[in-house]
Predict the 3D structure of the following.
Amino acid sequence: MRTFVIGCNHKTAAVDVREKLAFDDRRCAEALTAFHEAFPKAEMVILSTCNRTELYLTRPLQAPPRLHEAIEFLARQQGLDSREFASSLYFHEDSEAIRHLFRVVSSLDSMVIGESQILGQAKHALELAREQQTAGAQIEALFQHAFGVAKQVHTQTQISSGHVSVGSVALDFSRQIFSRFDDKVVLMIGAGKMGELTLRHLRDHRPRRVLVTNRTAARAQEVAQRLGVEARPYELLGDLLVEADVVLTCTGAAEPILTARGCADLPRRRKYRPLLMIDMAVPRDIEESVGELQGLFVYNIDDLQRITERHWEERRSKIGEGERIVQERVAEFVLERGRRDVGPVVTELREHFHAIAEGELQWLAPKLKDASPRERELIEQMVRRLVNKILHEPVQTLNEKGVEGRGQIYAETARRLFGLNADERE
Amino acid sequence: MELPAGQLVLTVAAGVMLGAASSGAAHRAKYPHDKSSWLLQVWTVAIVIINAYVLTVRTVAAEDVRHVLTNRFDVTLVFATTLTAVAACAQHLSRIRGLDGFLLPVAALFQVFAFVQVGEPLLRYDTAAWFVVHQLSLIAAGTFLVCGGAGGAVYLVLLRALRRKQPSPLFGHLAPLQAWERFSRWNLVVGFVLLSFGILTGICEATQSVQAEKATRQAWLTDAFIVGSFVVWGLYGAAIAAAVFVPRFRGRRVAQLALGTGALLVFILLVVEKVSKVH
């Protein structure tokens, strides 16, 4: 069997090319069905995410599709000319293809290294292939092994620990302060882009209420409408700060809008409930000393970015260990597969030669009427020993080549040389 | 009652295991994804079982349930076992995730202290009912108050990490700040009620005691352990009143009070009781 992968990702193709090659579930299912009809002996999984579109294929040695056929198939499915995207594609085969899959699923090849979404996406891709019957024993074994590798990489290296987006880090802080989030009120002051992104992230975790306020009421209304939250007048800021549990600031003000002096009474008015304040503005909206007030936790954009950068560094430092695990597991998989490749051929070879020997012994039997039972037994023994001795060297070579990862070629050659399973191959 | 060799070996082994569990819990705080977490859980349960076994054997041998409450070694071992059992539960409860790391060292301390108590004279009593209730409520109160103190310690450690604004291995592996505040406060409330009850029943037992002659009764009032208990009682009363009724005494201050008075309680149980000649 041959294994190969063709595809493109965020490193090799711009977003306009990736968009053209991407599959949604419906089109993916159609493509898999078409593939099954065109190449019934081959197996395929299509992995399509926002950062990559990849076709993982396995096929018998002499069966289609070849590389150019797979590229043409992809072009046909997307209604494109292959020349439009061929330069953005990469191609790996056999152990390199296996290594590529292991790296992808382990999130070592992702844009955000260590993200765990890709594992779910790969599982979904395999599920689609199963439904369309393009996932057979070979590709199933390959993907299951890849999932095991991903788990090992994540567990042993902790590559996914620590969030790498500002929004996630902000949420980490809120989770470490508050027991629950569904009874909390989130307030955004201003309408900056970064604040909005972070607010979206927090909103996804379903706080009780999300409020937006801005000096320009119309702007607050616009943001509130876009995000599906409530707008509040800026004049009520003092009361809003009492009501809120998490405050996001992202105004364009030149001076801090929340000062230690202005907030001095805030803890008392809040009955000393904790308040998480995240300042996304530059220049800052909240004075550093506000964080010294009882129950108030202030983090600015530099604090959050410093943490994300540190998490990035930690993740980058773990890539090497992840790559080592992948390399080991690729070797292990190739070895296992090699053994699986030659195992049946060795059995077939033995059965084939012993069947010939039995036939010859049956031919000889009537001609040995005068021979004693002891002599007949010795002749039978001699024939079987002869077969075993003849087969010893080829079987040993097959096993060795299997271990070296070249079992497929030698197994196929042995089959052809000795006419094993000829019917099945035809 | 003497400590036979078999029981000695078992309790020493449990003590060593508690020491190992304490360092295991500290290790887990640093490497939370370590696969040894389940081992720590099994280990902690094993310590509880060993101690419970020793206490049961000693109770059966003495043919009297009250024996456990009169022998200083046994009482201390019961306390260590209770703390270890709470730590074992904490390993499975996300609301107090991380408490075991702070509670197991205290339990280890009491396990070691139990050996210091071997050979000490039995605690005297005359009114069995008062005495049993007094001892049981003090053990329960001690457990709640030490847990509250440990909760306060976790709160302060976490608060420090949050104020430092740096990534910390504690984040995500300790329950949130609000949960610790609530835990400390409720442990204070329950612990205080039980402590008050324990002190009251102790007074009842002492005043009814035929052994408590006039001179001895006066000595009770100058006994360091009893005076210490009253001090703790007063502090906890103030802390609880503040924690419940004064908003300003929320958060860090509740944690500091819980930790401070919890530490004082441990000090009284370990040091003051040892030097007290009357109690």
